[in-house]
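User: Run a structure prediction on this.
Assistant: Running it now.
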Amino acid sequence: MISQRQLITAALFVAALACSGARLASAYPDRPVRIVVPYAPGGGNDTLARMLGRKLEELWRKPVIIENKAGGNTIIATESVSRLEPDGYTVLMVTTIFSVNPSLVSKLPYDTVADFTPVVAAGVAPSVLVTRPTLPVNSVQELLAYGRANPGKLTYGTPETGTAPSLAAELLKIDGHFDAVSVSYRGTQQQLLALLAGDIDYAFDVVSSLEYVKVGKLKALAVTISKRLDNFPEVPTMIEAGVPGYEAATWYGFVVRSGTPPAIVDQINHAFNRAIEDPAVRDRMDALGIKLVGGTPEQFANRIRSDMDKWGGVLRRAGIKAEMRR
């Protein structure tokens, strides 16, 4: 039996922790904050981190340093942050691959759930299913029918396994009940060039590829989110195109080391949400095809966990097994 004295002691200890966390949060940040981006400079993810970082500097009146640490399918940067003190002064940008890596890589050097505390979902970037203009299909259903009638004849491009285009392509093959041949490229730009040259039949590409649709160099069949794009309203969603429940988008968000005081997590979340609401940030991200989101840490935690289940299932059904980290 637990004595009354033990219960009082435990209650006092919890209260002391809460007061300590509140004192830390009231002083936060009292020095520069670092945002680690697990990608090279110049991409949409890097641009998003830098724009939000500048707004955080204005709000906090403290420097926000962007550190690019690319490599290892984001594992290098993620592992480095997992070993730091949980003080809230290092924030890690994560994307969909954060939820995918546990199913892609056996024996990750960190625990995706236990080692990190979600802070906020920052944005979502849809992909677009585009084909070469000479492919004899003009809709998603025609593409699926063509694939079923010509098994193994269709070719599609993908960057590295686990990226949004590769996941979108695997999901379409599973939901559409057809087969096609994957052709790997070193990045989305090389994939796009191959599609424009007619070397492959279709691909899931970034929204900017719709500019080639306007001039007839590509055909757009659908977007991979549940709502049509404002600037290309004529392109249906995959669900509207006849693939029920289909959604495959890249999300961007931020996490901190687990053990960071909840009061500091809440303060970081509040600052990010204020930055996300800035019209200039929204306009810039819209131009890059990224829709800003925001929300609570709990909402982002649910997204991370649900995508771990979703994409883990897709990879298993596609026969893609987890490999040891190289």
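The first strand starts at residue 33 and ends at 37.
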